[in-house]
């Protein structure tokens, strides 16, 4: 029988079981400001360093998409506290009360 595994607790989730897919889209937030005190030589050194760097590592530093399968219990815990702060992230009306930048 085919099954998936909860990414958090490892529980087997068989065909027909309730499960959730949590997807994340992570994008670097650059505000457009570059240190004005950087010298031309330092800028050229940084550009040269980027040219020889692993392109996949650079791309993951700028953009990443992730997906996880969760069982009901782990989904409920994740929704209440996605960053494991030990605080509740759900308001009394059941909506998200966190901040989005």
Q: If you had to describe this structure to a student in words, what would you say it looks like?
A:
The longest helix is centred in the middle third of the chain and has 13 residues, at 40-52. The mean pLDDT is 86. The chain is elongated. The protein has helices at residues 40-52, 55-62, 72-80; strands spanning 3-5, 12-14, 20-27, 63-70. The chain has one domain. It has a two-stranded antiparallel ribbon. Helix content is 30%, strand content 22%. The chain contains 3 helices and 4 strands; from the N terminus they run βββααβα.
Distance between the termini: 43 Å
Domain module tally: 1
What share of the residues lie within helices?
Answer: 25-40%
Strand content range: 15-25%
The helix-strand sequence is EEEHHEH
């Amino acid at each position: 029988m085919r099954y998936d595994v909860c990414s958090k607790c490892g529980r087997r989730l068989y065909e027909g079981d309730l499960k959730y897919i949590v997807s994340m889209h992570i994008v670097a937030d650059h505000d457009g400001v570059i240190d004005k005190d950087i010298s031309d030589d330092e800028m050229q050194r940084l550009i040269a360093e980027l040219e020889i760097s692993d392109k996949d590592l650079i791309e993951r530093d700028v953009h990443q998409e992730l997906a996880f399968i969760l069982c009901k219990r782990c989904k409920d815990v994740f929704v209440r506290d996605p960053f494991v702060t030990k605080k509740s992230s759900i308001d009394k009306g059941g909506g998200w009360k966190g901040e989005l930048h």
